[in-house]
Design goal:
238 residues; alpha/beta; globular; TIM Barrel
């Protein structure tokens, strides 16, 4: 969650039993940083870090988590980029375990600049970008996508991610007009490929978490349910 999930916030979540805590999303290129500033000006939360300071900033935030009471938790960083270089540099940070390409954000300032879910408009380019990052990254690579974007083929994008060698496919199974996830998207992807799927969207209780796993997700991610810095249900019961 941009502007929310920093080291301090993530450290609060460690006690709930999460295996992976995600920092970001971070704007890692000048264009995305400029877009982020526009988002901030209209009152929405964003992380704003100068490109030259980003590596040290992320290392500080990741270290805050790693040095906490639960030191065995893995740290992921969600990054908004159109090129591989910032991601591969971040992958060299010792305290970072997973780098995640953001092909998910729908904020118009970022999408209009070619970031976030705009990456899904060109599966071939997305495949090339992921392949380059996987080849050069020092850590595991995740790609977060948004389902059911008009004009985008969910399966084609999932195939691009899978064929490029990413370790994780993080799917926001958004179902426009509904207050629940589109579990059919998770099921259809799982039936066609064996990439590790992290299911996301509307997971707010045990039932919704179990439904996501039953649909075929190998793991789940939770955002809005922890926005206040606490989780209302026991992950161990899923």
């Amino acid at each position: 969650m941009a502007g929310v999930t920093d080291g301090k916030f993530c450290s609060k979540m460690a006690k709930y039993g999460f295996d992976l805590l995600t920092l970001g999303g971070y704007n890692a290129e000048n264009e995305s940083i400029e877009a982020g500033l526009k988002i901030i000006k209209r009152g929405r939360k964003e992380f704003h870090v100068d490109a030259k300071e980003l590596i040290q900033h992320i290392r500080n935030e990741a270290s805050y988590i790693k040095n906490g009471t639960v030191s065995n938790v893995d740290v992921s960083v969600n990054i908004r980029v159109k090129t591989e270089y910032p991601v591969t540099q971040i992958s060299k940070i010792p305290e970072v375990d997973v780098v995640e390409i953001n092909a998910h954000c729908r904020q118009p300032e970022l999408v209009d600049s070619g970031y976030g879910q705009a990456l899904m408009n060109d599966p071939e380019h997305l495949h090339e970008l992921i392949s380059d990052i996987v080849r050069k990254s020092k850590k595991k690579v995740s790609v977060k996508i948004r389902a059911n974007v008009p004009g985008v083929d969910n399966i084609a994008i999932a195939n691009a991610v899978n064929d490029a060698g990413a370790h994780y496919l993080h799917v926001d199974a958004m179902k426009p007009g509904f207050d629940c996830a589109d579990y059919s998207v998770i099921k259809s992807i799982k039936e066609k490929m064996d990439i590790f799927i992290i299911g996301n969207n509307s997971i707010r209780d045990l039932d919704s978490a179990r439904n996501m796993l039953l649909a075929g997700a190998d793991g789940i991610s939770i955002a809005r349910a922890v926005i206040h810095g606490k989780l209302s249900f026991d992950l161990s019961l899923i």
